[in-house]
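Hey Z.,

So I finally got round to the iron/sulfur cluster thing we talked about over coffee. Here's the setup:
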Amino acid sequence: MVTCLYLMPTGECNCICSYCYCPEGGKRGDPDLFRGVVESFTDHIISSNPPVKPQIRFTGGEPWLEKQLLPDIAGLFLRSVPDGLVVVNTNGMLLSADRLGDFRGDERLIHVVSLDGPETLHDSRRKTTDGRGTFHKVIEGVKMLMDLDLPVYLNAVLDTESSRHLPELLRFISSELGLVELSISLLHLDTGQLSPGERYSLLAYAYSEASSRSIRLGGHHRLLLGYWVPELRCNAGSATALVDSMGMVHACQRFVGRSAPDCMWTDDFDWNGFSSGQQCAMVCGSDHDHAVGKKLYNLYREEYPEYLHSHHLDRILFGVLA
Ligand code: SF4
Ligand code: SF4
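And the result:
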């Protein structure tokens, strides 16, 4: 049964990050289509009353380009499904206190904002379409969310270069922003070229640095442990459905533009019976990826046993856990 709906209301973006993995030439979707999808999903959740927290997750492109649709949908869903969550993955450049004011203090509206490192590093890779760095605007947006008492989490890509700046980033988010958690994502463009041992070393270093500052880590790499930690098994394509800006349905955002969609969304979409042909096994990736997961599992067992179970941060960062 689908309990987590991913929405990609637009494939457009106001930034040109050096490593963007979204398909080029992304288009804006039809807002009415997305309103229809959410009304149908909301009816499904109310009638099926699932045992897990239902979620709507916005991804993109930059979802806040849909400045009216996003708060409309979040409001509709959270009013109808009191135990639901709405999670917005955003570059943090278009956050507006005016549009978010109605949600002040609502812990169910969560933002995951991309911040890759200290200013120099962040601005070297995450720029606006006219080439300006985005660091200061992102931090302004993060602080505005905090002022509104809205939950905010940061996600940083982890690669060979950014790992050198990780201690400074950890110090900044802890001392300047008061955060105690961070999501890290292995950057495939760089780390895909590295051996499993080298990718594992990047992660092990990140855990060591984070641990020394009492910061908890999360991120997609946690799903690599799915073989060994059942709570971290990916259930994309049965627990999740993603509707892209063209109205096509996929199991996971990482498949958009890379493999054929499962179907086009229609009013009679079967939320209870959806089973994606794209659904991966317990973890995506090659044997090399699994080798990284095995090493990470052993690291957890030896040094960080608190990571051997799923944590609220995992569920905030991913909708694919059962
Ligand atoms: S903000 Fe996200 S969607 Fe936009 S260019 Fe950067 S990585 Fe791509
Ligand atoms: S389907 Fe694959 S890429 Fe998508 S969340 Fe699951 S493990 Fe990750």
